[in-house]
């Protein structure tokens, strides 16, 4: 379990201004969800309506509704004594999330392979080339990687598979940011995406599914390594 301070104070930034202008539950939800995913709100951090409403400059009603939505997504957990905390990060949960993700994304890659046309293959290849060009920049690698996977999902046109992935997306993204940090400055991420694109281009659905599952499994292993390092006590 990752230790964290009891309360995390969001920085005064542009997203706060957006929340104050919109002042709706959706805006509060979007902001809190992003901060949980990127770690600004740390795992196990305690969240309370009065503190959050004061920090965000909104009433308690949209905060309450946003926390309800986050709880339904299992990104926050209710405490026996009342209130909620950011859901913990744990290696056991990570393995389960990535197992589900690998199976679902493997199926999408298989379906995409069966539907791919030359223009689709070229589009995936361009995204891999772009990822290669920015491989030293974590945020850009994540953004382009998400676009690559989104292209495959669109091409696969498997509504049920995509919906199931959407339901675990927040958890995937929390752990995926850990694996990305382990890969910064390497070509591993680029090489794996290129293997997926090449397998789809080959027209072999088995190869496409296998390449995608291996890519997701390697990402999970990297995320587990990073999380394990966070959980390990400092030497001495």
Automatic annotation (TrEMBL):
SUPFAM superfamilies: GntR ligand-binding domain-like (SSF48008), Winged helix' DNA-binding domain (SSF46785). It holds the Pfam family FCD. The keyword Endoplasmic reticulum does not apply. Residues 22-89 form the HTH gntR-type domain. CDD domains: WHTH_GntR. Keywords: DNA-binding, Transcription, Transcription regulation. InterPro entries: GntR_C, TF_FadR/GntR_C, Tscrpt_reg_HTH_GntR, WH-like_DNA-bd_sf, WH_DNA-bd_sf. The keyword DNA-binding applies. This is GntR family transcriptional regulator. It comes from Oerskovia rustica.
């Amino acid at each position: 379990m990752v230790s964290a301070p009891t309360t995390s104070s969001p920085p005064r930034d542009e997203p706060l201004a957006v929340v104050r202008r919109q002042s709706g539950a959706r805006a509060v939800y979007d902001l809190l969800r992003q901060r949980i995913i990127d770690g600004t709100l740390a795992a196990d951090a305690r969240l309370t309506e009065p503190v959050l409403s004061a920090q965000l400059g909104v009433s308690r009603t949209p905060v309450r509704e946003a926390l309800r939505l986050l709880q339904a997504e299992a990104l926050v957990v209710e405490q026996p004594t009342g209130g909620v905390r950011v859901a913990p990060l744990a290696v056991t949960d990570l393995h389960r999330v990535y197992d589900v993700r690998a199976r679902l994304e493997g199926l999408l890659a298989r379906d995409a392979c069966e539907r791919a046309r030359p223009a689709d293959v070229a589009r995936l290849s361009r995204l891999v080339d772009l990822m290669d060009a920015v491989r030293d920049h974590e945020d850009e690698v994540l953004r382009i990687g998400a676009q690559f996977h989104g292209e495959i999902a669109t091409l696969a046109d498997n509504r049920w598979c995509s919906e199931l992935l959407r339901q675990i997306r927040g958890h995937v993204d929390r752990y995926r940011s850990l694996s990305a940090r382990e890969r910064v400055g390497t070509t591993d991420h680029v090489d794996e995406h290129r293997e997926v694109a090449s397998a789809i281009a080959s027209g072999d659905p088995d190869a496409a599914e296998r390449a995608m599952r291996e890519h997701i499994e390697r990402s999970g292993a990297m995320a587990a390594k990073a999380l394990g390092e966070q959980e390990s006590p400092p030497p001495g």
